């Protein structure tokens, strides 16, 4: 057996680790509503509040706002701000852009992130 031949199984084993971790899917799983929320959030909110709700100095940190004990933890408060905005402070009102279902979906996604239930990253498309 050549030297390389003897090394092959070791090389294969070395490669299998990372490939295996990747195949197990780093992509987060979400239900259909959370997935829709992630989509809408990424288009409408992320440029100010940060991709994956990870924050951005220009706007409120929604992981804190919607987290336990935060001022936006309740759906009603969150939905009201998203629809009406705070135009004088840089938060646009999105009532004309988003349907009620889309706002509810964004809440489900952001709340899941804030409660530590949903991980960051591009989710897998849920099977319907
Ligand atoms: C153009 C930038 C911008 C966009 C786009 C934007 N926001 Fe904001 N948002 C802000 C700013 C700035 C604030 C802080 C306003 C303040 O100081 O009261 C804010 C505040 C908020 C708050 C209140 C947080 C708190 O603790 O008081 C919520 C909830 C919120 N945004 C949700 C969203 C969601 C959900 C979207 C997408 C549908 C979105 N925002 C899109 C800029 C933005």
Structure explained in plain terms:
With 128 residues, the chain is mainly α. The protein has a domain at 27-114: Cytochrome Bc1 Complex, Chain D, domain 2 (Orthogonal Bundle). It contains six helices and no strands. The chain has helices spanning 3-23, 32-44, 46-49, 62-65, 75-84, 100-114. The protein is elongated and about 75 Å long. The N and C termini lie far apart (52 Å). Residues 44-45, 47-49, 58-60, 62, 65, 71-72, 78, 81-82, 86, 89-92, 94, 106 line the site of heme C.
Form type = elongated
The count of β-strands is 0
CATH topology of the domain at 27-114: Cytochrome Bc1 Complex, Chain D, domain 2
Helix content: 40-55%
The rounded distance between the terminal residues' Cα atoms is 52 Å
User: How large is the radius of gyration?
Assistant: 20 Å
Q: What multimeric state do the chains show?
A: single chain
CATH superfamily of the domain at 27-114: Cytochrome c-like domain
List ligands, each type once. Answer: heme C
Order of helices and strands: HHHHHH
Give the percentage of residues in beta strands: under 5%
* Largest beta-sheet details: none
Number of helices in the DSSP assignment: 6
Poorly predicted ranges: 17-22
Alpha-beta classification: mainly alpha
Q: What is the CATH architecture assignment of the domain at 27-114?
A: Orthogonal Bundle
CATH class of the domain at 27-114, named Mainly Alpha
Mean of residue pLDDT? Answer: 88
Tags for this entry?
128 residues, Cytochrome Bc1 Complex, Chain D, domain 2, binds heme C, elongated, 52% helix, mainly alpha
